[in-house]
Amino acid sequence: MLVDGKKDGVTTIPGLNQIQFEGFCRFIDQGLIEELSKFQKIEDLDQEIQFHLFVETSQLVEPLIKERDAVYDSLTYSSEFYVLAGLIWKASKDQSTRMQEQIIFLGSIPLMNSLGSFIVNGIYRIVINQILQSPGIYYRSELDHNGISVYTGTIISDW
């Protein structure tokens, strides 16, 4: 590095894959829980039923396959994400409050390898950051082939 025309030591700039890998690790270790904790409770309009996510109990399980097997079998190298959820029926005058808990599957999260790439359908993919939507949680409702409403949520992290 040159400062005022003098050599003042050499600075090593980390590679893009290292920066992406470290960012992804931060997202898995901190960001995912942080984003989910922003909406731990959802209530119905009458405020009689609450849906809670107990994010402190979340679990990202080990992948079922190895990286090389994902490439060979044209699969996505990912891990399943689970969290404890509770449905609470608030007490009315003649009933007590009830709660039912269950571990729910939130989705599969593609895993980044140490080279900073993902394996999606057996193909190595590199993610280039683009701002497509603001960070947050987006909900969508669609009708399936039987005419039943299917609700999905997408989490866009600012990590």
Automatic annotation (TrEMBL):
GO BP, one annotated term: DNA-templated transcription
EC numbers for this chain: 2.7.7.6
Gene Ontology CC entries for this record: DNA-directed RNA polymerase complex
Keyword Transferase appears in the UniProt entry: yes
Sorted UniProt keywords: DNA-directed RNA polymerase, Nucleotidyltransferase, Transcription, Transferase
One GO MF term: ribonucleoside binding
Leading EC class: transferase
Similarity annotation: Belongs to the RNA polymerase beta chain family.
Descriptive protein name: DNA-directed RNA polymerase
Annotated organism of origin: Cuscuta europaea
